[in-house]
Amino acid sequence: EDEWSSTVAIYSVERPDTGVYTITASNAAGTATCNLNLKVIDKPSAPQGPMRIKEINSDSVTIEWNKPSDDGGLDISSYQIERCNVGKMIWSKVADVDHDVSAYSVQKLHEDAEYMFRVCAQNAVGASDFLDSEPVTVKCRYHKPSAPQGPLQITGVTDTSLTIAWLPPFDNGGIAIEDYCVEIKEVDKKAWRKISSTKDLHLKVSDLKKGSSYDIRIIARNHVGYGKPYQPDEPIVAGKRISEKKLIS
């Protein structure tokens, strides 16, 4: 070094040391200053929490997080997502996602198992600490519907046909009813026979034997499956005409 230059050494710098440093030189003639910009780069801080669980299904969980409060002085390049089964506590990598992604659906999970998830941010220097989720039990948020509701309404009676109507289930299982399965059997028989599936709350039942008594049951179905059947206590009789709408509970 010559007499016109000086060196300033700052050891063990950390991210908070980033800033503008002013150097002042003084002699008998006066003073002079020089500003130096110091930028300390490091790995980012952990993504900001808490981690949010946005959706739980029978085989997947969607998680969401916020970007780190400190990117380490460099652009975030990606996020790494990991999962573990709480019973085993062995972490495994799920995916790396782009810097602008803040939510991810973790797939291929086992229903009724308990999992934890964690996310770290990455830049050119390295990876941050992880942000961990609370334990989450994987289960379907939907369930099978309850039985359709009565009373059963009977109209349009002829010798061999009639029209039945019913009410939707009290509980659809959290998802729309897809259709209703209508089954019938003669009272003195054991085997049920499917008449039809319908999206409506009514159905015309044909090909009945005049004077025969029949049991009818109706089963609602949603995306999860068939619920319990609704079966009126009283049988219906083919060809038994009535002047008004008949209700069977």
Automatic annotation (TrEMBL):
Domain called Fibronectin type-III: residue spans: 46-141, 148-241
InterPro entries (alphabetical): FN3_dom (IPR003961), FN3_sf (IPR036116), Ig-like_dom_sf (IPR036179), Ig-like_fold (IPR013783), Ig_I-set (IPR013098)
The UniProt record lists the keyword rRNA-binding: no
CDD domains associated with the record: FN3
Pfam hit, one: I-set
Keywords, sorted A to Z: Immunoglobulin domain
Organism superkingdom: Eukaryota
Database matches in PROSITE patterns: FN3
Name the UniProt record assigns to this protein: Titin
Biological process according to GO: anatomical structure morphogenesis; cell differentiation
Key word ATP-binding present: no
Source organism per UniProt: Schizaphis graminum
Organism ancestry: Eukaryota, Metazoa, Ecdysozoa, Arthropoda, Hexapoda
